[in-house]
Records
---
Amino acid sequence: MGKGIFITVEGPEGAGKTTILKIVASELKEKGYPVIYTREPGGIPIAEKIREIILDKSNIEMDPKTEALLYAAARRQHLVEKIIPEINKGKIVLCDRFIDASIVYQGYARGIGMDPVYLINEFAVDHVMPDLTVYFDIQPEIGLKRIQQHRETEVNRLDLEGVQFHRKVREGYKLLLRKYPERIKELDADRPLEEVKKDTEKMIMDYLQKRSFLVK
Ligand SMILES: Nc1ncnc2c1ncn2[C@@H]1O[C@H](COP(=O)(O)OP(=O)(O)OP(=O)(O)O)[C@@H](O)[C@H]1O
Ligand SMILES: Cc1cn([C@H]2C[C@H](O)[C@@H](COP(=O)(O)O)O2)c(=O)[nH]c1=O
């Protein structure tokens, strides 16, 4: 693919992904790096509309395969309309969740199966995979408590699943960590925000150095 770099963050609810990725994006920009922050599901208008449908708390009757297909559809549009063009322009794309979330949430935690969910997503992403994924590890109970404690954080349909579901999410991510040790790097997100942010930035900077990515 193009000359840019594609980095994703993943992890259970309330791990601090959005908060930290936005800070890291703005700090890297200040240092002169060509960075964009984006998120899934969403990032562009069509995918944001699909997000509203998937995460709407009143859609309790949604079938798990419908859910998986909607995430994949949102991903496809986001990829072709934003992620690929930005990578081709030489940008560092920092994306809040991507394909791993589907494999874990729909494939493992919902029980559709990791392989079938990977297959529909393979169709959606045409082999475009992240160069680096930072996995924020946290016990689901702690992450969910953070969300409940902070009123400004959106509580969505998936946040409302029982703790058992969120334990499976964490288990699923651990399986992916073992499967892709080169791409997915783990950090302990149950620490003060400043520490987690510092480690995230270091992982990203180390990777940029490894790829000889320089500020122009
Ligand atoms: N290290 C931390 N310690 C304590 N609170 C934190 C920490 N990181 C983030 N928070 C707070 O926890 C809440 C959830 O954070 P955030 O929305 O960034 O998590 P997230 O991983 O993106 O969650 P989700 O996947 O559910 O969107 C926010 O109110 C945020 O301020
Ligand atoms: C991309 C993606 C996301 N999810 C879930 C994970 C979260 O519960 C929500 C997204 O909300 P966030 O506050 O932006 O993290 O959707 C999923 O189940 N499958 C996916 O592919």
Note: Residues 5-210 form a domain with the Rossmann fold fold (CATH 3.40.50.300).
---
Amino acid sequence: MIKRKRFGQHFLNSNSISQSIVSEAKITKNDVVFELGTGLGILTPLLCENASKVISVDVDEQLTKNAQSKFSNIENLVLKSGDGFKSKEPFTIFVSNLPYSKSKEAIEWLAQSSFSHGVIMVQKEFAEKLFAKSSKKRKAVSVIADYSFEIKILSNVGKNNFSPPPKVDSVILKIVKKNVMSKDLIHTINKIFSYRRKTVKNILKQFNKESEIDKRVDDLSGDEIINLANQILKK
Ligand SMILES: C[S@@+](CC[C@H](N)C(=O)[O-])C[C@H]1O[C@@H](n2cnc3c(N)ncnc32)[C@H](O)[C@@H]1O
């Protein structure tokens, strides 16, 4: 099979890691599971064992077709081809070995979605970014993730558990939904980070709003950044 690099196609080859991802997802008969990136389907049938329904989407049509013939006997499975981040299907649990180039997009999409919890695999460096509290390492996505989810590291996963092996190590995270964010709030937080050297006063001036706060973005807490974004958005 040709690896399509732009789709982040590094397929998990470990049955024990797959089992532990699915068991950490704590799926019950009331759950609708959304899997982003069917790939070769190492997780897909396991997700179906306890769920009411599993929706598994892959952007690569060939992979979806292969999965459709391989799993044609699984009644609670819906396989679709397309961009998973465009899906509007409701779900309660999200599970994905994310295509790493799409990790930020995934967090922003999940921040806007309403669901219970999820298990995601991300690149180790991206996970560090999500937990970054120090001003230099902290990015817009760190603030968005911190506001949206309770995040816990479940385990580290080495490169050799994938075929072909990627250049980076991975981390499995459990995310529990705290708050749903609007697209506008996410956009505004990203905008604030593009002005990270400016003071609150100067940022608000650009939006025709006043403030006496001289602190720079890097010196604000996550909550203060959310407040600033809400202030910018306020009509
Ligand atoms: C890291 S692989 C994981 C595949 C499989 N779940 C596994 O664990 O081996 C990521 C998968 O996501 C798919 N993908 C990439 N971008 C996507 C998108 N926007 N929507 C849905 N699937 C996508 C890729 O084609 C690839 O199959």
Note: Residues 5-180 form a domain with the Rossmann fold fold (CATH 3.40.50.150).
---
Amino acid sequence: MLDIRRPDIVSTTQHDGDEPRGEPTRVVVVVPVLTGRRGEGADTPSRTVEARRDEAVGLAAAIDLEVMETVTVSLNMPRPATLIGKGKVEEIGGLVTAHDAGLVFVDAALSPVQQRNLEKAWKAKVVDRTGLILEIFGRRARTKEGALQVELAHLSYQKSRLVRSWTHLERQRGGFGFLGGPGETQIEADRRMIQERITRIERELEQVTRTRRLHRESRRRVPYPIIALVGYTNAGKSTLFNALTTGGVLAQDLLFATLDPTLRQMRLPHGTKAILSDTVGFISDLPTMLVAAFRATLEEVIEADVILHVRDVSHGDTEAQAADVAAILADLGIDPATRTIIEVWNKVDLLDPEAREQALNRAARHEEGERPFFVSAMTGEGLPGLLAAVEDKLRAAHERLTVTVAAVDGGTLHWIHENAEVEERKALASGDTQVTLRIAPEKRDQLERRLTGTA
Ligand SMILES: Nc1nc2c(ncn2[C@@H]2O[C@H](COP(=O)(O)OP(=O)(O)OP(=O)(O)O)[C@@H](O)[C@H]2O)c(=O)[nH]1
């Protein structure tokens, strides 16, 4: 697990004599909001200031930090040295001391120099948005591959900061007119250490990815459709994942359960079996180095037969969150016009009657057949209706056929069991077998060729 407070995570921003003083889990959250000209990483026009504050607090809370205070800072012009102005830096410094905070989360992109200067000024560790998101992803990664991908992204992030800081130090050294000054060997050693870890993780990742690919291929041979959960962080995907797959792991689930905790087999009301896939939560302004890691964990979504877009409908910022999720899906090449995406409006138990009425009105504006489902993963409300709808969609896509397989054609019978869902199997007097099955459109031709002997 990665840890922003872990001492062996190299930081160019540590200096003798100004180590963080306060409690490492007490955090002051700073939300810079650009009011003037647009600048680096501070404002997100689609979000209100309140929503940004809420999100920043949520991010900090996601890794169990104790938020002592949240400060919004209006920025006309970002300052190169500290991002925010001198007066505010001092004011926040006062809060850091008063709360005995060991950490300040600045919800923006900080340059290494800004980070270092702020750490010096506040005598606390400073983490920016990318740093915190990397930390959250690191803690939530549930597969070995996911954990390694995030660690790799984290190391690349550190390395890039080291490089930039190096340039900065070089310039400084030039100014003082001496070579090989303090810091050089330390930074070189840090770089080497990071590079060694990157190489080691890349090797490990290659191995894990190869194993995963093999598993994926063996899973593909099993004809179960895939239902993928996607959604903004904290929307309730994992709660829903558990609610929909309770009842333990069936014996035949082991193939999935042991391989990957984000995949579980489930049974729909009429008995259709499917694989439910949980995914990592989406976050707005995802750091670029995480996009690749993200992509790898989203392969199931790309291949899914049905995508459930889980939304926290009780959240004030639910529309902007939905827009972020839609943008990420589009980035993954998922076209809502050709894919089955069902919106799941979760946490309805938190809505008061008036808010529920408003949400129902909003839902009614969706086309029939694309109406969102109101559910509570917590209380179970609405889940049976959702499952029935998912099953309908899957069944609509999978044709139901009754075929007769010749007694001599054991190969085709085997193929059918591997590639289709067998509903009924009857031995005929002739020795042939009559099979009623459901099959995906892309497999139908193959079956036809086998049955007509043209395979
Ligand atoms: N009241 C209520 N709370 C819910 C419901 N579903 C989830 N929660 C809570 O919302 C929080 C987030 O739920 P998770 O299931 O972890 O959300 P997630 O989407 O998997 O989050 P990430 O892992 O960040 O992507 C937890 O505290 C849940 O207990 C619901 O239907 N009602």
Note: The pocket of guanosine-5'-triphosphate is lined by residues 140, 231, 233-239, 281, 346-347, 349-350, 376-378 (CB under 6 Å).
---
Amino acid sequence: MAPKKKAQKSTPKPSTPSNSTAGRLPNWPPFQPLIPQSDLSLQDVLPGQIVTIRNLWTATLCKNYVSFLSSLPLITTPGKPKKGDAVRVNDRFQIDDPAFAARLWSETALKNLVLRSVHDGDLGSDAKRKELWGGEVVGLNPNIRIYRYSKGQFFDQHYDVSNNVDFAGSPPISTKTTWTLLLYLTSPATGCIGGETVFYPEPELRKKKGKDPPPEPFVAELEVGLALLHRHGADCMLHEGREVLEGEKWVIRSDLCVRK
Ligand SMILES: O=C(O)CCC(=O)C(=O)O
Ligand SMILES: [Fe+2]
């Protein structure tokens, strides 16, 4: 029998460090199939607050991921939230996986769409882009959260806070999160009823004693493969994940990180 050493020597190095901690990190399936980036675009659905990308992931990829994610050790929320935390009733898997975050950023259309979000060629587009994203976007938060909501589960109204995140490397980069990323893997098309993410825009400052009715809530309907980004931190809108009425809602959550 050939010594093991020899076989290993000829094995090409993986292009990402994800194998270095094999066994601990999930063996995430490849992002296939995907729609060509040129067919995707970023929609400004609530300017400055919410943008979406439809079909960032295909229905097939979402379906495959739901079966893969079902094999992970999801943990049901402990009944009582910590003081100041929102009531979240769902099953969650959370992991720090810089390689997966980097793949989700670069191997999908996300990076290109976010970095080109303000048309190149526009005067001052760099500054506009920085204004929109809250700085120079470096990538996605390696802290990846997977949510599964079954019938009766929900995420009560809350604000998402900004966190400091260090990107390893030489030199390392200090960043902070500015926008939440939610990637929906299920929808009514897969039997998930309810579970919409609902945002409550703040009423305008009523300097002129306005009697306008409060702004309508913005309801983000679940859509398979849709990526939703919303501003968080100081300018976060109050929002919630409505109760799931039928089926299962699956979401992958991360955040945009900008250089500090
Ligand atoms: O699951 C949702 O629709 C919302 C999730 C959310 O608000 C969060 O992760 O902070
Ligand atoms: Fe949230």
Note: Residues 147, 155, 160, 180, 182, 197, 239, 241, 251, 253 surround 2-oxoglutaric acid (ligand 1) (CB under 6 Å).
